Amino acid sequence: MKKVILMCTLAVLMFACKSTSVTSTNTDRKAQVAMKGNWVISSVTYPGSQYIKVNTFQLADSECFVGSTWKFISNNNKGNMALTKANCASFNSPITWFVNNDGQFVLKVLDAGEKARKVRDGYILYVANQTASSFQLIDKIDVGGKMTDVVYQFQKVN
């Protein structure tokens, strides 16, 4: 009997001390519904952009994302992204995404037919300046020991 009580106590303590994660936070439904639809990245900006290269999502140079098309489906948190800029490698992939209550945009880039739960790597960006026709996703990168914002400006496509 003592072993059962000890095991129950340990189990309660383990779950009580569970750390929080951006992926376990409640979603911001209002922000997600506002992102529903088709979007294009109109610009990518960051300080020192003429001197440094940013490899966005480990896929391509950040400049290759200008003109990329994105589709966000808010009711199932799925979508698609496509890079189509000339002189850049073309890329098309399904995605899963959500916005948590802390204003963090959580993104997973999937291979065709791959389930999101099988993908362990993802990206966390911050949502800013959201309107009905535009919003920004902000990525924080380390440039020479200094955190720098990379701003992806999205415009709604009608």
From TrEMBL:
Domain Lipocalin-like: 35-111
Signal peptide: 1-24
PROSITE patterns to which the protein is assigned, alphabetical: PROKAR_LIPOPROTEIN (PS51257)
Keyword Signal: yes
Keywords of the record: Signal
Family annotation (Pfam families): Lipocalin_4 (PF13648)
InterPro entries: Lipocalin-like
Protein name in the entry: Lipocalin-like domain-containing protein
Organism: Flavobacterium fryxellicola
